[in-house]
C-alpha cells in the first residue's frame, strides 16, 4: 500500500489520538501559566483572549462528548454563548474541562463516521493559536504534527478541496492533498509543515519562507 492509499482510508482512531497527544503537551503548559497569560489577546481569533479560545475548545469538545448538537451549533453565535457561559469560571476549571474533553471526545469522533473529524483538527489548530501568543514552542507543530498532517490530508480529500502536491520539509514523501481527481492540475507547495498547516487553517503566514504555485492561499482554508 502506498502513502497515497493510506490517506484515502479513514483512520477512526486518528482524531482521538491527535487530541490526546496535544492534551499531554498543552494542559501541563497551561497549568503552569499565571492568570495574566489567560487574558492575552490572540492573533488568529480577533476579539478572543487565550481564555476565550480555551473556553471555546472545551465547550466544543464537551458538546461532542455529550452529543449536544442543536440547530446552529458551532456557529459564531453559538461559540460566543459557550464562552459567555464560562465567564465566571476559574481558569483552572476551564482547563479541567478542556482536559476532560480532549480525553473523552476521541471515541465519540471515531464512531461518527468522519462527520466530526474536523473538530479534532480545529482543536489542534486552536492549541497552536494559544502556543503562538504565549511564546510557547510547538505552534502548529509539535508531537502531534504527523497525525495532524494525516488528518488534514484526509479532510481536504473528503471536502474535495483544490488538489495540491506538497513537498514538505522533513516529510519523506510529498503530500497529496485535496481532490486528486479534480480537472484542474495540482497546485504546488514547497516549505515547512507548520506553514502548510497555517495556510489550510487560514492563519497568517507573514514572514514565512515557502512557495505556493497554482492556487491562491484563500482557496486552501479548510475552515472557511
UniProtKB/TrEMBL annotation:
It holds the Pfam family MDMPI_N. The keyword Isomerase applies. It comes from Streptomyces osmaniensis. InterPro entries: DinB/YfiT-like, Maleyloyr_isom, MDMPI_metal-binding. This is Maleylpyruvate isomerase family mycothiol-dependent enzyme. Keywords: Isomerase. Residues 22-104 form the Mycothiol-dependent maleylpyruvate isomerase metal-binding domain. GO terms for molecular function: isomerase activity. The keyword Transmembrane helix does not apply. NCBIfam families: maleylpyruvate isomerase family mycothiol-dependent enzyme (TIGR03083).
